[in-house]
Amino acid sequence: MNAAIPRAEHPRPDFMRDTFLNLNGEWQFAYDDADAGLREGWQRPGTALPLRITVPFAYQTRMSGLGPTDEIHPILWYRRGFAVPEKMAGRRVLLRFGAVDYRCSVYVNGEMVGGHAGGYMPFALDITGALRAGENDLCLRVEDAPDCAQPRGKQYWGRGLMGCWYTPVSGIWQTVYLEAVGACALTRLRVVPDIDRQLFTADIALDREPDPDMTLELTASFEGRMCRRVTATLSGRRASVPVSLSQRGGVDPIELWSPERPALYDLEVRLLKGETVVDRVRTYFGMRSIEVKAGRVYLNHRRLYQRLVLDQGYWPDSLLTPPSDEALRRDVELTLQLGYNGARKHQKLEDPRYYYWADRLGLLVWGEVPSAYDFSFETVRNLSDTLADFIDRDYNHPSIICWVPLNESWGVPEISADPRQQAAARMLVQQARALDGTRLVSSNDGWEQVEGDICALHDYAADGATLARHFEDRRAVEVGGCDVRACYARGSAPAGEAFMVTEYGGIAFNSIGPQGEMGGMQTWGYHDKVGSEEAFFNRFASVTAAIRAIPYCQGYCYTQLTDVMQEINGVLTPDRRCKVSVKRFAAINRREG
User: Fold this and answer.
1) Confidence of residue 593 (pLDDT cuts 50, 70, 90)
2) Angstrom distances, CA of residue 4 to CA of 53, 54, 326, 523
3) Torsion from C-alpha of 153, 445, 328, 519, nearest 10 degrees
4) Helical (H) or strand (E) element with 410
5) For 586, what's the count of Cα atoms within 13 Å in the CB-facing half-sphere?
6) Which pLDDT band, with edges at 50, 70 and 90, does 4 fall under?
7) How many degrees, rounded to 5, is the angle at CA 300 between CA 299 and CA 302?
8) Residue 98, pLDDT above cutoff 70
């Protein structure tokens, strides 16, 4: 790994080719508040931009070299040069972006090669026709307005800080890289596990029509030992290839993925023309199932009680962009050490390498779509596009077991009674089920739910006795709601969902972590701050025991893993120091003491 290049590792372990050139590092940069760039031809090669920024960090961050700042600049420009490596010669070259918030146009050697809208998802552009020998010029124009129809998550739409919303992230905030492919290339490789039949199905898509004599070769292996190799013919741009993992003449079962044993299979898919390899992609997958039956959650047909922590994925010097791959792995490890078996990644589509470490280390994950805050035609379309792209990008991660399209009625504020907002929520639930039949869905996590697999309520009661009283009678909860709002939107009713308390706790210290004023805002948690470790554990043990005593409850999610700016109710400080005894905290989670 090149230490001079930030985030130099391959950004997609679940979709890897051998050809890879990382374009992170120093780029030229400019603010264009007057929107003069296009008129003045900034996209043309040779036009120097006045500032320097370290990609993939947003200008608001310290690690970008320009921050920290809460200034709002709605139009940004980026520029850098690059040369295509010799190993990519004679092949098509794709330019890939992990994420650019929010809308961008991309130019190579002054020619517009494409664009993209959507701040959290990757995109790729075939730039082969715009390339020239030697040095090439790459330029981006990015727009990121404080628009509440955009899926924003916790990115505040104004300056400063507000409530539980934080400094936004604009422009490039995930890795940029080049990749070489053949005349025909794989664009999608989804592995659908079927543990009952001991097989998986590889759903494969190509970017153009294959030649008549092209074939697919799939090789599955486990811990370096080949399990199965199959060849499939092509009749168009898509193929669905079932591959059995059962041992002929043997008695060994397939390896199942679970938090206790996160077993992963490797899969290589080669597109062949005779003996010539036209394209090759490597991925991995886990054989596991997740389902709800009669109000209970089952992982691989075994009862699952979920102990989740709310994780917002912010870092003090880089905001939404993880500062390193090691930082991502450390977050997963800390979550497990605290006694949790899962995380609800809150209001953020996380860096794909977070899910990679969750897959490898055995952490369950809920994937949540970042909220918009206005309800409009654009809002519905943007949420739908983001959910579809989220599922497309991260389908192969066995750690992800639940999709969350909406949170606490954000973006659908009148969902309780408005049929159109209810229809939007149902549409997102059905979209998730149509695109992915292997995972659960929590429709509007918190309250005012429509349909889904989880009945997810939020309750920040200050003590266990109050919390127990709130959930004493399940029927009363379903009819009357939680402590804040109705459990179901009007016209919706219980339908066998699994009940969970998916936010609670939020206990803040008055003496550990960042204190006092931050940007003119008082730091906060839920209810009174505690003054000692003993006071923390008295409260944490009380509310956690009360939830675990709810007979119909299938799990919980504690708020939250880390402090984030003015919100100081994390178990960890922003730099990931634990405020309390890890051993004692984990014992309460695991009911070991």
Assistant:
1) very low
2) 14, 11, 16, 36
3) 40
4) none
5) 13
6) confident
7) 65
8) yes
SS3 435: helix
Distance of alpha carbon 120 from alpha carbon 154, whole angstroms: 13
Burial classification of residue 159, based on how many CB atoms lie within 10 Å of its CB (0-12 exposed, 13-18 middle, 19 or more buried): middle
**CA–CA distance, 46 with 48 (Å, rounded to integer):** 6
Q: Which two tokens stand for residue 501?
A: 């308390």
Residue 288 half-sphere exposure, CB side, CA atoms within 13 Å? 29
In the structure encoding, which two tokens stand for residue 592, read together? 């070991």
Considering only residues 510 and 324, tell me which one the structure prediction assigns the higher pLDDT.
Answer: 324
Task: Judge residue 367's burial from the number of C-beta atoms within 10 Å of its C-beta, 0-12 exposed, 13-18 middle, 19 or more buried.
Answer: buried
Is residue 413's pLDDT more than 60?
A: yes
Query: Which of 554, 552, 547 has the alpha carbon at shortest distance from 306?
Result: 554
User: Distance (Å, rounded) from C-alpha 193 to C-alpha 198?
Assistant: 8
Q: In angstroms, rounded to a whole number, what is the distance separating the alpha carbons of residues 569 and 586?
A: 17
Rounded CA gap, 193 and 258, in Å? 13
In the chain the domains, ranked by start, together with CATH numbers, are 21-181 (2.60.120.260), 186-285 (2.60.40.10), 290-590 (3.20.20.80)
Torsion angle in degrees (nearest 10) through CA of 428, 430, 436, 442: 60
Angle formed at CA 547 by CA 544 and CA 551, multiple of 5 degrees: 145
409 backbone φψ class: left, alpha, beta (φ>0; ψ -120 to 50): left
At 121, is the secondary structure helix, strand, or coil?
A: coil
**pLDDT tens digits for range 308-337:** 999 999 999 999 999 999 999 999 999 999
pLDDT at 371: 98
The tokens for 459 are 């309750």
Structure tokens at 263: 């077993």
Q: Would the pLDDT of 520 be above 60? A: no
Q: What is the pLDDT of residues 205-231, one digit of tens each?
A: 999 999 999 999 999 999 999 999 999
What are the counts of helices (DSSP H) followed by strands (DSSP E) for the chain?
9, 34
- Name the pairing type of β-strands 406-407 and 444-445: parallel
**Which residue type occupies 352?**
P
Consecutive H or E run containing 345: strand 342-345
Q: Write b or e for each residue in 6-39: b if 16 or more Cβ atoms lie within 10 A of its Cβ, otherwise e.
A: bbbbbbbbbbbbebbbbbbbebbbbbbeeeebee
Q: How far is CA 532 from CA 465, 512, 528, 580, 581, in A?
A: 21, 9, 12, 9, 12
Q: What is the DSSP string of 267-298?
A: EEEEEEETTEEEEEEEEEE----EEEETTEEE
